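Q: Hi! Curious about what Biosynthetic peptidoglycan transglycosylase looks like structurally. Here's the sequence.
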Amino acid sequence: MRGIFRLILRILKIFVIAFFAITILWVLLYRFVNPPVTWLMITRGFERKADGKDWKIDKHWVAFDSIADPMKRAAVAAEDQKFLNHFGFDFKAMERAIDKNQHSHKLMGGSTISQQTAKNVFLWPGRSYVRKAFEAYFTMLIEVMWSKKRIMEVYLNVIEMGDGIYGVEAAAQNYYHKHASQLTTYQSAAIASIFPNPLHWSPTNPSDYLRHHQYLIRKNIRRLGPLDF
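A: Let's find out. The predicted structure is below.
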């Protein structure tokens, strides 16, 4: 019996060491290599097929310096205004989200850009405590191993921005027929406004609610100080 217990402990030890080694190397690799695909892209592709649509993963990677400055500022203004100052987590935003969700049927997110990047690149879609724990783990890893510039670059290249549309270059081409480097403040704010619900919202055909949201994003962009990446 004692021998079996030792064997189980040894297997668990090997598993834990392998998990940390693989995940750390994975995150380190993506510091230099662009993620080719995400679980969300694959999942959405199968969902499209199930709905009778063609398989579609429209994405075109662009370097950080080839993304218009207004788009970077719009992402920060819309999603995470403390992005350059926190270590992956905005606990006050989380508290506000938890408090609001207790009194509303509409779920409000409190995730930072770093958390969203970790979720999109390394994890599967869905909501569970297990996935949130992995999200926190990968968020800490990318904050340690990547620069804020790299986090923003990956974020703006993998985030879902429409039905089968991923990343700012594909969004710029689909919605405005231009390169990501040419996006204006208005266009950037419009694209950023759909981040919470990209399958149902359109930057070029916004509802009154979305127009107001875009106005607030532009207002926040003006309030932002220099973004020192």
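A: A fun detail: The chain is about 60% helix and 5% strand.
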